[in-house]
Input
Amino acid sequence: MDLRKPRRRLRRRWRRRGGGGWREGGDGDGSLLGYRPRVLRRPRARGCRIVAAARRRDRLRSLCEEINGSGDRAVSAVRSVAVELDVSAEEPGIEASVERAWNAFGRIDALVNNAGIRGEVHSTLDLSVDEWNSLMRTNLTGLWLVTKHVCRRMQDAKLRGSVINISSIVGLNRGQLPGGIAYTGSKTGVNSISKVMALELGAYNIRVNSVAPGLFKSEITAGLMERRWLNTVTERTVPLRMLGTSNPALTSLIRYLIHDSSDYVTGNTFVVDAGATLPGVPIYSSL
Output
């Protein structure tokens, strides 16, 4: 049976975005599943309904309240709901969370897989098996299981969809640094399995792309950004001589990958790093 049916065109109020399971339409019948507030805030103004997922649902309460209070209340009182999801859990637990996410609005049109952990800095000789397994379980296995059960439902419902997997520049040929063997392995894996997913899921009109972010200015990196050596590295090795913020540098790309305008785009790894990985040298060589 050919599942590649033309989908009903949605009226586009804008031209836009991609960070999770959301298809943006004027009638607001799209739904997005994603994890991090930084990625999920932008879709709220675009008629998108959002399912925010995290291991602790209470951490998402303020985000959902913010989104639900920002739209046209005459159209819909609830634009966002929170679902408990532990991507390091066993498959039955992940499948149950995906089912709750799907039932929240009756569909998921886009999925943003951006849950992950960095782990500690350890060499190949010092890293423990437990640390390796923990990081792989969260960054790679969990991503695959969430995608598996979301896309099964997309297939059964004959919905076109978009999956955006957040990896890292450490998963690229020129992005590795010592001490990150497990993290690097997991993010390289994300880039690779995204391409295989794109090959396999294209028959069901499901697109899969990965995004490899570099270093961004944020609350987490505020202290690092004040270091003089980082400014030196940026000026000497980064082609654009700057370090950006995830919004709009990252969120704009995700919006594009969710939107209909990227319907011809799948199987790509999008690098968002101001060109930092182009020189082919690790940052410590510039100190």
In short: The first strand starts at residue 31 and ends at 34. Confidence is low (pLDDT under 50) at residues 1-32.
